[in-house]
Amino acid sequence: MTKQEIAQLLDQAAKDAKPIRQMAAEHKISLDAAYEIQQLSINRRLDRGEKITGFKLGFTSRAKMEQMNVHDLIWGVLTDAMVLQANEEVDLKRWIHPRAEPEIAFRISKDITESIGLKEITNYVDKMAPAVEIIDSRYENFKFSLEDVVADNCSSTGYVVGNWQDVNENIADLDIALKINDEVVEEGKTAAILSNPLQSVVELTRLASKAGTKIEAGQIVMAGAATAAVYLDYEQRVEADVEKLGKVGFKTKAQ
């Protein structure tokens, strides 16, 4: 099976909300090939008229890296078709087995074409906000290898961003929680995101420059999860609550 054919299968699985089997082991897909498949799948979205709105980081937790036996972050692409509005009511039938994670989003203020260090990164980021990312693997049983998940655009499927506010560099140890129907179901510290969420943007600049990808002004970066992801169900109010940054969320419709 060619990379183009695998990209088409993954794209169709997302469109139809029907899972497919894992493919990396069977087709001996390398990590580099997985990123090529990811891009081919994104190209199909762009051909349908979607626009790139930013990027997401994965494996930003050292514990998750160790669990997956990897030594670097992974990254995926966000598009305008993934955007949810604050308090929007969404139909879970559009996804396969969606889960939610509380995050911090950053807005890029200047184009980035090279790797930027932590001391300089705030020259390229002007706003931050609380956010929820919805992840939804296109594979059966939400199980996958590193290469599988990268090919699947790192399970990207939806996100909602709260009110933007000026970047404060002192965000390395904030409380962050995911609430379902006003009950805290997961909580942690922003330090779980590479010790400092801004470091995720730094790492993205490194990965993107290596891949020859420009990060454009106005695009956003989802810094990665500080807690475990929580499976979504019908008739829920889902909300991220980040100390000093505020709250944002959405609702799920009845079945």
TrEMBL record:
Annotated ranges, domain Fumarylacetoacetase-like C-terminal: 82-248
GO CC, any one term: cytoplasm
Keyword Lyase set for record: yes
Entry keyword annotation includes Lyase: yes
Stored InterPro entries: Fumarylacetoacetase-like_C, Fumarylacetoacetase_C_sf, Hydratase-Decarb/MhpD_sf
Molecular-function annotations in GO: 2-oxopent-4-enoate hydratase activity
Superkingdom, taxonomy of origin: Bacteria
UniProt entry keywords in alphabetical sequence: Lyase
Identification of the protein by name: 4-oxalocrotonate decarboxylase
